[in-house]
Amino acid sequence: xxxxxxxxxxxxxxxxxxxxxxxxxxxxxxxxxxxxxxxxxxxxxxxxxxxxxxxxxxxxxxxxxxxxxxxxxxxxxxxxxxxxxxxxxxxxxxxxxxxxxxxxxxxxxxxxxxxxxxxxxxxxxxxxxxxxxxxxxxxxxxxxxxxxxxxxxxxxxxxxxxxxxxxxxxxxxxxxxxxxxxxxxxxxxxxxxxxxxxxxxxxxxxxxxxxxxxxxxxxxxxxxxxxxxxxxxxxxxxxxxxxxxxxxxxxxxxxxxxxxxxxxxxxxxxxxxxxxxxxxxxxxxxxxxxxxxxxxxxxxxxxxxxxxxxxxxxxxxxxxxxxxxxxxxxxxxxxxxxx
Length: 339
Description:
Strand content: 5-15%
Number of helices: 13
Number of strands: 10
CATH topology of the largest domain: D-Maltodextrin-Binding Protein, domain 2
Radius of gyration: 21 Å
Largest sheet: 10 strands, mixed
Distance between the termini: 57 Å
């Protein structure tokens, strides 16, 4: 066995042993987490992790792409121990740059669906979200519109001025990246151009899209599934609903927030303790109840009325292939969607 392979085996065995150890703080230094998730989404459960384990956490927050690019720039000198990303593409970019440890099988196997785990074990999904079409049934009835079969149908004349999107939103960017992977550059650029020609309505993020649909400002909007449930928590009488595109359509992309451990970490015990904690029932129940996302372990169920992940006819794609988010941002900018 070569020296390189021997070292890799030692590392893997070491992580396997670590996963069996009790969760206790291993030193006085705080664990450094770079987070592409908003503090309001991940901050409370990171604080709970510290309270439960005694492991202090210092967090750098930012957009997922920006944080991933910072790690790439810092290279082996990055102070980050753990990277938490909003999507699989950013994690895939760091994995391709060989900056991530392979996680132990015991950690990877906590996620029930292998589609939400890196094929090479470099990252693991923490929570899932589905891209959907939020719609107002009353507006659809007034306009005589039926729900579309595909996200690609939204360029048709009947949808003129009736669709909301958020072209700078990270999940939208990931969705368009999936189009580039599964369709082609030209087809994706053509869809963007068609949407703009059809007077798509732009919003800064998903929340105002849902509000616009509720108010009848637009009939439908492209969002993540959980945003509507935030409104329903405040007003259960809201009649707007979610449409999951059928037939493996690109509009039903399922993406994940995920976590990885940097090779540059000098605290592998604590880093792995955090990743495992985020896959435990306490954190998974938090993601289900507080953020209305899909938990990714079998022992926890969604807290809201949504189809089971396995019942969503999502497109077949390796989430690690969504790594070229910058290329998508450039395509969106070149389309004129940000003007």
